[in-house]
Amino acid sequence: MHAPTSKTLLIVYHSLTGGTRQMAEALLAGAATEPAVVLRLLHAAQAGADDVLAADGYVFATPENLAAMSGQLKDFFDRSYYGALDRINGRPYASLICAGSDGQNAARQIARIATGWRLKEVAEPLIVCTHAQTPEAILAPKQIGSPDLERCRALGEALATGLALGVF
User: Using an 8 Å Cβ cutoff, are 15 and 24 in contact?
Assistant: First the structure.
């Protein structure tokens, strides 16, 4: 049983080649430094509206697929959107994008959905560009470098601290 003052940070991710998963896990490690925050890391296929409703803040993590968020993250939003609409207004969110090019359209898509949910963006989208541009490079397992993983970890720490302190 969690203390009544504890907050929950929900991290919903999809990862095909491992890059986005590494980013989400680094964010989770940073957030874990704040003991007053309960952390939930869920694959997009496993997450739904009940998980969204039970959380106080969110991180949405996706690879960039064809200049868009992944289909599985989109499916999560499709399944969860109306069940959470007008019930999570004002809650904080951030996004992680593992991109082959620039990741901006995936970030825009997440921001549009978050705007509909009336969430509050508390950090710029954290985009890691792998520069994967050939079919072989795109489908190859990714290894995210330490500097980028550190940025994810720092974002997780900042989000969890902000939730714990009631800043968001």
Answer: yes
